[in-house]
Design goal:
The structure is a single chain. The protein has 402 residues and is α/β, with parallel strands linked by helices. The protein has 2 domains: 172 residues, Flavin prenyltransferase-like (Rossmann fold), CATH 3.40.50.1950; 212 residues, 3-Layer(aba) Sandwich (Rossmann fold). 34% of the residues lie in helices and 24% in strands. The protein has 14 helices and 21 strands. Strands 12-11-8-13-16-17-19-20 form an 8-stranded mixed β-sheet, with helices on both faces. A 5-stranded parallel β-sheet has the order 2-1-3-4-5, sandwiched between helices. Strands 6-7 form a two-stranded antiparallel ribbon. Strand 6 and strand 7 form a beta hairpin. Helix 1 packs across helix 9 and helix 4 crosses helix 6. Bound molecules: cytidine-5'-monophosphate.
Length: 402
């Protein structure tokens, strides 16, 4: 199964003779299961028509920055966020210069500025333009900004020159795109992830729960699969689809999640607990719906403590590498370190849930990694991107510990 399955690829096409190869690139990425949307610059449209790319991608092609019709569909910021990866192929010398300067004077350059995903460019130009010091300086700047430069290849050029400046072949571009989603960092490792909220029954129709969306755990499951892991997701009730190639075990209550986690522990290399497990449950769930008492203004529920799933997994005899999450509203590092030590964990990923726009139900998160050697803050990222970074951090520590 291709690592491009269900991946959302934004393909930017700029003005160069190699633009005709981008049509084939769209096809080949789609053959691998990717969902491709095309953005073209004005110059690109001199070489290949949007209609060709629309017919191939089956989606409207985006060309204008300020097009009310397009903005009513998928606005440019939405489009920038949509892509799991932004690939510009071919990337002309002019586009590279605009990118290096951070210009936003057309749709594609604006998307590059507004994107959250990684950006890769495949330069294609005349060999003298490529060798020019300005182009080389621009490419150096882009590399320093963590933009991947794919190619160029060397050889005969459309203009008759010979030298470096040819766009990489479509095969190589597809390979490089796929490689972005398959780090191999967790190849063959068995990972179990708990995610989402738990529901603690009061009676057959009522329960106690919380606002956890499960997004962080699901994003981690997807990133683990991308990194080659065999991944099991033990999930409380969420609205999310199970990531492809991941086995999901659905549970409701903390006790069910505990039992599924303990069953999975022996067979697991890495255990990641992202679930927002209810700390307490009603001592006894009523068999029948509890009726209102006409003569009483109050109702008392006796609650008992739920088992700590993560702590129990971490103290099991055949113990996996254990990663916990800590949502705090103050003294994030101190409380996270307390959890690391108390629950005997290898690593805690902590965030400050009192901050607006990160954590619980949002699409973004900003975390601090706490382990026995110290703490490391990560930048605010989408949960999908953050998950990929976390997989890297987890795999580095796992490798050291084993
Ligand atoms: O102690 P606290 O709930 O803040 O710890 C958070 C971490 O412990 C999370 O990783 C959470 O998934 C895990 N946890 C658990 N079982 C519980 C409570 C928390 O696995 N009953």
């Amino acid at each position: 199964m291709s690592s491009l399955q269900n991946k959302q690829i934004l393909l930017g096409i700029t003005g160069g003779i190699a633009a005709y190869k981008s049509a084939e690139l769209v096809r080949r990425l789609q053959d691998q299961g990717a969902d491709v949307r095309v953005v073209m610059t004005k110059a690109a449209m001199e070489f290949i028509t949007p209609l060709t790319l629309q017919a191939l991608s089956g989606k409207p092609v985006h060309t204008e920055l300020l097009d009310p019709e397009a903005e009513a569909g998928m606005g440019h910021i939405e489009l920038a966020r949509w892509g799991d990866l932004l690939v510009v192929a071919p990337a002309s010398a002019d586009f590279i210069a605009r990118l290096a300067q951070g210009q936003g004077n057309d749709l594609l350059s604006t998307l590059c500025l507004a994107r959250r995903s990684k950006l890769a460019i495949a330069p294609a130009m005349n060999q003298a333009m490529y060798a020019n010091a300005s182009t080389q300086d621009n490419l150096k700047t882009l590399t320093e900004r963590n933009i991947a430069i794919w190619g160029p290849a060397s050889g005969a050029q459309a203009c008759g020159d010979v030298g470096p400046g040819r766009m990489l072949e479509v095969d190589e571009l597809v390979e490089k795109t796929a490689a972005e989603f398959q780090s191999g960092l967790l190849a063959g490792k068995r990972v179990v992830i708990t995610a989402g909220p738990t529901r603690e029954a009061i009676d057959p129709v009522r329960y106690i729960s919380n606002h956890s969306s499960g997004k962080m755990g699901y994003a981690l499951a997807q990133a683990c699969v991308e990194a080659g892991a065999i991944c099991q997701l033990i999930s409380g009730p969420t609205q999310l689809d199970c990531p492809p190639h991941c086995q999901r075990i659905d549970v409701d209550s903390a006790l069910q999640m505990h039992s599924a986690a303990m069953d999975a522990t022996n067979e697991c290399d890495i255990f990641i607990a992202t679930a927002a497990v209810a700390d307490f449950r009603p001592r006894q769930a009523a068999n029948q719906k509890i009726k209102k008492q006409a003569d009483s203004e109050t109702m008392t529920l006796e609650m008992i403590k739920n088992p700590d799933i993560l702590a129990d997994v971490a103290s099991a005899q055949q113990r996996p590498f254990c990663v916990g999450f800590a949502a705090e509203t103050q003294e994030v590092e101190r409380y996270a370190r307390g959890k690391l030590e108390r629950k005997k964990l290898d690593m805690v990923i902590a965030n400050d849930v009192s901050q607006q726009g990160i954590g619980f139900n949002s699409d973004d998160n900003q975390v601090l990694i706490v382990d026995a050697n110290g703490s490391k803050p990560l930048d605010k990222l989408s949960k999908t991107e953050l998950a990929r970074h976390l997989v890297k951090e987890i795999s580095e520590r796992f490798d050291k510990a084993n």
